[in-house]
Amino acid sequence: MKPPYIAFAAAFTLTACGPLVQIGGNARAPEALLTLTATAAAPAPGGPARSADTIAVEIPAVPAVLQTLRLPVTTSASEVRYLAGASWAEQPARQFQRVLADTLAGAGLAVIDTHQAGIAPARSLTGTLRVFGLDVSGAPQVRVRYDAQIAAPRGSSVALRRFEAAEPVSNQTPVAVAAALNRAANRVAADVAAWATP
Q1: Is 13 part of a structural domain of the chain?
Q2: CATH classification of the domain holding 45
C-alpha cells in the first residue's frame, strides 16, 4: 500500500499540469457564427389539418465532410479543405432541415414534428444532403445537392428525386459564402416544396 503522501503528491502533480481535457481546444473563438434562414415564412400553427395531409421532414443524412461546424471547400476532385474563419452555429444538416420544413409549411403543407406530435405523418421527407459548400475547382461557386425521398407509411409508395442549386461567389469571406449558400439552399427547398405539394 502506498503511503498517503505519495498519493497526495501524485494528485498534486496532475492538478498542477492543468486539466486533462480542455473544452474547446486552443483555437480562437470565431467572430460570428453562420446560420441558414428560410426566405419563405412559415405560417403560425393554427386550425385543423387532416392526418392524410401531414408530412414530416427528417434531418438529412450527410457524408463525413459535412458532419462538422466547418464549411467545406472543394479544391479539386480529390481534395477538400475548410474555409478559414467560417463556423456554423449548428451543423448544416439540421439547419437545412429547418429551411425545408419552413418552406414546405409556407407552401401550405401540414408539417409536423414527429418528436413532439403523437401521430404518424401521412408522408415522410427524408434524404441525403450530399453537397453543401464552396467549390473553387473551377469558377468559385457554392453548390447544394439534396437527394430527396418521400415515402408513404409502410412503404406503400416511394418517390425519389435529386435537387441541385449553385450560386456564383466573387467574395470568399465566410459571410459572403454563407449568404450564397443560404440562397442556394432556399432555391432547393422551394423546388422540393413544389414537388411535394399534391
Answers
A1: no
A2: 3.40.50.10610
